[in-house]
């Protein structure tokens, strides 16, 4: 049976649903221009200057603490905390609002090499090339399709009852916490698909060849954050190293929370491969809608989440400038309401609370919900 919050759509209704969302895209595309370019340039400048300020303050705090003979001296500690938070802010903005959106090709039309989605490389352990493959193509094409979208649990977590239960999942409340702390490293190895190597489907030589680009990227990240900048602080290198690690962890946890809230709330659905075969444009939009969730919170939430607070709009239009999503969302929500489709949104505590409940509940055996896939939950007449 169909989800109670979603009205079954007839074939004609489904076609009109897709056509209205396509028309919205065309109207927005026609208005993209200088304001969008100015916006992403401001974000780029913010990332740069908050990063510089953060690293300068971390170094100053470490040296001040050393000269005063106590890292925890109130003055040194205040400077260190402020510097760490600024560096974390820079990394969050770079990952969420700059890197993620640029890599989607949202600003390719500017013909500015700084914002070229095909060549941009970001401040994270994983390579942008792997992200283009695992995220831009695999995840956005096959959103929440079991066996196609590797983001369903990331190979570590059982989020939905449709995933086959294994004893390993009993540990997932702990695994989920570790994954959040080390999220960038999980993303780095995602496309290696280590499970295939453990299962003997690829040789170690093949795995090693595939891992070389990742190894080079990880090496650059480690060299910068954990060797070069700490050494610039001289005898107080350890303080800088720890502050850099904390900034990375803050960014990792925040990114994890935003991404999980966008895909794994109580109303999010998964779909079988069969349901996505030959799907129409309207069906594709319907699957994106039912596999995504928004986060309310206003302009600051939009900025800090890279506008993934509008995950539904992002999945509808991944290559439109993300700063447009808040305005687009007004009309998207109205279209969904008119066609009787649930538009899932809620505060960050509410959405993440649902995610945590899923992680805890599905660590234990459970039966799949008696709910048909979105493509099958439509009327035929």
From TrEMBL:
InterPro entries: FA_desaturase_dom, Fatty_acid_desaturase. Keywords: Membrane, Transmembrane, Transmembrane helix. Residues 79-345 form the Fatty acid desaturase domain. The chain crosses the membrane at residues 49-69, 75-93, 168-188, 226-247. CDD domains: Delta6-FADS-like (cd03506). It comes from the Bacteria. PANTHER family: ACYL-COA DELTA-9-DESATURASE, DESB, FATTY ACID DESATURASE 2. This is Fatty acid desaturase family protein. It comes from Lysobacter brunescens.
């Amino acid at each position: 049976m169909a989800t109670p919050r979603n009205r079954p759509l007839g074939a004609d209704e489904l076609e009109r649903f897709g056509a209205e969302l396509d028309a919205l895209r065309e109207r927005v595309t026609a208005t993209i221009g200088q304001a969008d370019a100015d916006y992403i340039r401001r974000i780029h400048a913010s990332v740069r200057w908050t990063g510089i300020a953060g690293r300068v303050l971390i170094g100053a705090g470490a040296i001040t603490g050393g000269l005063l003979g106590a890292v925890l001296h109130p003055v040194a500690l205040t400077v260190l905390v402020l510097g760490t938070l600024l560096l974390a802010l820079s990394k969050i903005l770079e990952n969420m609002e700059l890197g993620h959106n640029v890599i989607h090709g949202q600003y390719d039309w500017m013909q500015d090499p700084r914002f070229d989605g095909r060549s941009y490389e970001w401040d994270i352990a994983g390579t942008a090339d792997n992200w283009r493959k695992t995220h831009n193509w695999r995840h956005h094409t096959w959103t929440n399709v079991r066996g196609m979208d590797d983001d369903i649990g990331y190979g570590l977590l059982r989020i939905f009852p449709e995933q086959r239960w294994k004893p390993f999942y009993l540990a997932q409340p702990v695994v989920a916490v570790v994954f959040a702390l080390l999220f960038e490293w999980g993303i780095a190895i995602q496309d290696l698909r280590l499970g295939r190597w453990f299962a003997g489907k690829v040789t170690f030589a093949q795995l090693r060849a595939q891992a070389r680009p990742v190894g080079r990227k990880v090496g650059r990240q480690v060299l910068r954050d954990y060797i070069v900048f700490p050494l610039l602080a001289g005898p107080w290198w350890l303080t800088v190293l720890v502050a850099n690690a904390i900034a990375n962890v803050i960014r990792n946890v925040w990114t994890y929370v935003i991404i999980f809230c966008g895909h794994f709330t109580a109303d999010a659905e998964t779909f079988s491969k069969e349901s996505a075969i030959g799907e129409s444009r309207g069906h594709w939009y319907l699957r994106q809608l039912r596999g995504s969730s928004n986060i309310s919170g206003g302009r600051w939430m939009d900025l800090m989440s890279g506008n993934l607070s509008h995950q539904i709009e992002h999945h509808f239009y991944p290559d439109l400038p993300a700063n447009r999503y808040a305005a687009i969302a007004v009309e998207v929500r109205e279209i969904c309401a008119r066609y009787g489709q649930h538009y899932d949104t809620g505060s960050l505590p509410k959405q993440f609370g649902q995610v945590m409940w899923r992680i805890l509940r599905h660590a234990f055996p459970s039966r799949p919900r008696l709910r048909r896939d979105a493509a099958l939950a439509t009327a035929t007449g």
